[in-house]
Amino acid sequence: MDRPAWAEHLRGDPLPWLLDGEEVAVRHLALRRLLDRPAGDPEVVDASAAAMAAPPISTILEAQDPEGWWVKPGPSYGPKYRSTTWNLIFLDQMGADGEDPRMRRACEYVLAHDLVPGGGFGIGQGKTKPRASLQLHCLNGNLLRSVIGFGWGDDPRVRGAIAWETGAILGTSGHHFYRGGTSGPGFACGANEGLPCAWGAIKALRALARIPPAERTPEVADAVEAGVDLLLSVDPATARYPTGWGNTRPNGSWFKLGFPSGYVADVLQAMEAVCEAGAAGDPRMASAVEWLVAQQGPDGRYANRYAYAGKMVADIDAQGKPSRWVTLRATAVLKAVRDATAAAAVG
Questions:
Q1: Average pLDDT over every residue of 143-157
Q2: 318-325 — which CB contacts under 8 Å span 24+ positions?
């Protein structure tokens, strides 16, 4: 296999490592994201089935209650990171098959227990039901992306969560804001002292970008554009986004590439969001691409520096060790940028 063009600046070709089958879920996603194989390709179908039958996906699904929840029934935000909310988010990031009956039950459970009536997803746990004051871009974006990816995009409840997200971003007339939660348009968040929250913007943008461009309403298109504008308003490699409460430096988590991703985001996820929104070729990404290339190890592989080891139902990686998952994330972005640059040159 020839070395792919997107790996030209890497110190080694990580593709054979990603496809070697040692981590079957990575192999499945690498076939799709790096080799552009269609979902119906026989090798992809086989890899998807193998991923569902092996850890970490199988381990997480084995811990699921037959009704669709994890740990305890009801509103599912807590406990982090073992509850229904987080397992659904993580399984989406691992490429779980949305047609599997267990995934169908999990999506239905979240849609039944974690939506604010008439709006998006909200924080709820124990006896606390989700309410409008506990709706945040990070949570709504994460869950919205997951259920869209699992095939629920046409469900009226999901469309309501999309409408909440676009209304919160654009400040649509009639949309209500809350000082301690989503406090204003343009990704303003009470947790960030009312300033725009880039972590929330990343999650929201990745959710809306999962809607095929041809199916996006004008409101969705405008909200996607607003997300890209915020994330590229500064050099993503610096993460110098607005910070409240007297903080003068970006949170250190920005610079720790990891997998999976909860409400925290890193520089690479900002790049993922921009790429998924169709702006991989934006020249404002150039410095971030250089930063990303500089994070590789001596063999072109990337380490997991924000692993959730010991916190999840199934451990993914050892902290600080080379990670197929993080390497897949990084190379998918490098490929997207390379493809966009090549397309622009031809066009």
A1: 98
A2: 322/297, 323/259, 324/17, 324/18, 324/22, 324/23, 324/26, 325/23, 325/26, 325/259, 325/260
